Structure formats: C-alpha cells, structure tokens
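User: structure tokens for this one?
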Amino acid sequence: MKNTKPKVRLWSVLTGLTAILTVAAIVGNIIANQYATTLNVALNASTYKIIHGENTGDTEYFKKGFASDEEREAYEAELCATVEAEGAALLKNENNALPLASGAKVSLFGHGSVDLMYGGTGSGSVDTSKAPNLKQALEAQGITINQTLWDLYSSDSMMSKYSRMTPASISDTLEANTQYAVNEAPWSALSSAESSFAEYGDAAIVVLSRSGGEGADLPSGENGTSDSWISGQEGDGNYLALSAEEIELLRENNLLVSATLAEVGKHVRPGVSTLELDKLAEEFIRSHGAEPGFLGYGGFPNTLCMSVNEEVVHGIPSAKRILKEGDVLSVDCGTLMKGFYGDSAYTFAVGEIDPAVADLLRVTKEALYKGVAQAKAGNRVGDVASAVQEHAERHGYSVVRELVGHGLGRKMHEEPEVPNYGARGRGPLLKEGMVICIEPMINMGTKAVVFERDGWTVRTRDHKPAAHYEFAVAVRKSGPDVLTDFSIIEKAINN
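Assistant:
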C-alpha cells in the first residue's frame, strides 16, 4: 500500500491558501468600491473621461486651478447667486408685496426661519459654516426683523421640542427614515409674541423648510416612530400624516357640521322648501367663521346636498322642492375652516313617516356604528365595509355600490376610498392618525341606482326610499375617535 499523506497535506495547504485569497479578494473588492474616489485620487486615476464635442459654446465646465481658497469661495458665492436668481420664479405678487422696501419691519414665521435647511443628504450636503442665517441676510438689505418672535423660535424650549430631526446617515436608511416629523411649532406656542406682530406688520414671511435628500427622503417603512418621538406626531413614520393639532382642526370643522345639521333639523317640517333650508345652513356656517365646503365644489351649486325619499345623495336644493308629511330628507353638509374640511350626513324624518321607512333609517344608522367600530389602526378598509354590508343585508336592505366614503383632510375627498361593501381583511391598511368618512348609503329595495340628468342627483332605480348617515372618524390604535357628534342633532330635533 502506498503512503498518501504528503498529497493530503499539499491539498490542505492549497485549500487553505485559496480560502484566504478568496476572503482577501472579497474584502478588497468591498474596500475598493467603498473608497473608490479616495483610491483614484491617491493613484491619480480616473473612472470617467470628459469628451469635448465640436461645439462647446454652451458648455461651461467646472472651473479649477484657483489661486487660493478665497478665490474659490468668491467664485462659489457668485455661482450660487446666479443659480438662485435663475431658478427663482415669482408666481404671484398681490398688491406689489415684493420687493420689500428697505426699512420694512417684518415678522418671520415658521420654525424653519431659525432652523433653515440649507441642503440635503449625500451629494446634497453643503458647507454652511460661512452661510448667513435668514435674519442676517434680510438685515443686510435694510429689513428690520421681529426680534421677539425670532428669540421665541430660537429659545431652548422651542428648539428642543420642534427642532428638525436630521436623517441619521445615508447608509443607514432604515434608521434615517424613522426620524422624520413635521416639527413645526403650532400657532398656540406663539402666544407670548403676539403683542409684537402689529409693530412688525409690513410683511409676514412664512418659512417652510424640511429634511430630505438622497437616500433618505420620505419614510419608506412600516417600522415608524415610537410615540415618544414628538408629541402630536405619533404614527408610522410618515411625516406627512396628520398631526394631533390638525386632527383637532378637523374635529372643529365636523362639530360645526353637526351644529349646522342640528340647525337645519330644527326647521325640517312639511311646507318648507329644500332651498330655504340650504340658505339657512349657508348663513349659519358663515356666521361661525367658516365657508360652505360643498358650494362650488366640483361645480355643485349649493351649500347642502338634500336628497328626498328615493334620492340617495347629491340632491340639489330647490324652491320648488317642498317637503311634505311622511318624506325622508337626507342632508349632506360640508365646511371649510382653517384649511381643513368637515363632512357629515344625517337623514331626517319629515313629520310622521311609515314604520317600514323608519326601520330603514334605524338600520342604516346602526350599520354606520358597526362600520365605525372597525375603524382602528391595524384593521383594513374591508373590515369597515363588510361590517356595514353584513348589518344592512341581514335586515333585508341593499348597499349602494357606486358611491363610497373617503379620506378627509385638507381636501374634501382624499385616499383611501371607503366602500360600504367588501371582505374582511382586504383593502388599504388603516393607520394611526388617518381620518376617514364612513357613510352608509342603504336602499330599501334594489341596490341599483340611476344618475339623473342634472349631473348630481343619484336615486334608486326602483324609486324606493334610501337613507344616508355619515361620520368623520380619526383612526386610533385604541379604537375609533368619532369627530362628528350626532347627539347635537338629535337633541335639537327631539326638543
């Protein structure tokens, strides 16, 4: 028998050496890719080549070979000024507000005024060591700045609470994307400076500034921030989500809608025209500092959508449409106040109505509450929809398919759509801080509807009655937060 041990040793050595060389090659490749620019500079190598064409008249290549840092900095300052001048576009200048006259006394609003974002991440980062702040830049042009307001924004308490969170690093995208928030001081935080506004009333400059840039811009994950990041900015990391203050503005709008519906409800009786009720609602809304949200919306001609009997939604008020005993009137109302919308609906009985129709109204309202109960973070739109559908159909009624609820915020109709039929566990995910309108539209007979020639009114195909109720609901982890208040309406109509 031959002795094979020397061959075994040789192969062991070769295998070990190969493994070491492989690891070294992998590590070297990673280092080379990571520090390619540094290595190219050290070796005086280049990974690209500029090829000059025949016509270079419109091309200005990067200027190099400055005699000093001061010359380079002067060139950079001139270039920045040129880019800014060429890139600025004045969209609107009412009453010749701009340019500001030298000596003007102005107030700077927005936390960005003291915490300005000069650049972004990655290749968007810039050297701000010699950059003037906004106050210095304006004062250099003879503009006087409200020092009281500036000091308030710059105070330790404001900076610690509302200072912009900068992305952690471009290479740590997950962490960076979890640290975004609006970080704007609410109006209520400025109360101590309000007495100074009149003195600096030549102009109010609102500064908008946000973090963003290469590799770390909008949040991209479901991981999100914890509730401890910033009060009022809780959620899933989406810094465009509604803040606590914004939701309260929506609540204010929807409570006004409830009060308006209550005022209308007090006057719902036989002999009243739908136009009379519409004018009453418009006056009531405007007297409370808001605008009718529906008036002019998509071309709608009135303040209220008023749908009688077989009209499901979007009925146009008319002096010729006189309510009579036994009618049912569905009233959909919207408001616009402080930049946010309110939207709710209620179906009223005109005098004594048929018990079968009264049952339709009762079941439709119950279906609304069934759907609302599912409006909590972690559920899906389908959970809301199926709850409405199951309750309505269990009682022998039909759910309209062509019309849906919707998101609510700075626009009347936002994502997601909220239908009144569907399957549990399906549809868009409901997240903390979302505000949606849940509005069952339930027919006594068939679910089929007809769109009338006026371009708005939707009625049942079989001319049987329909009912419509609507809540605005803020989605919470703990459950639904209903922004509408039906108790105001029901107290008014039952007294």
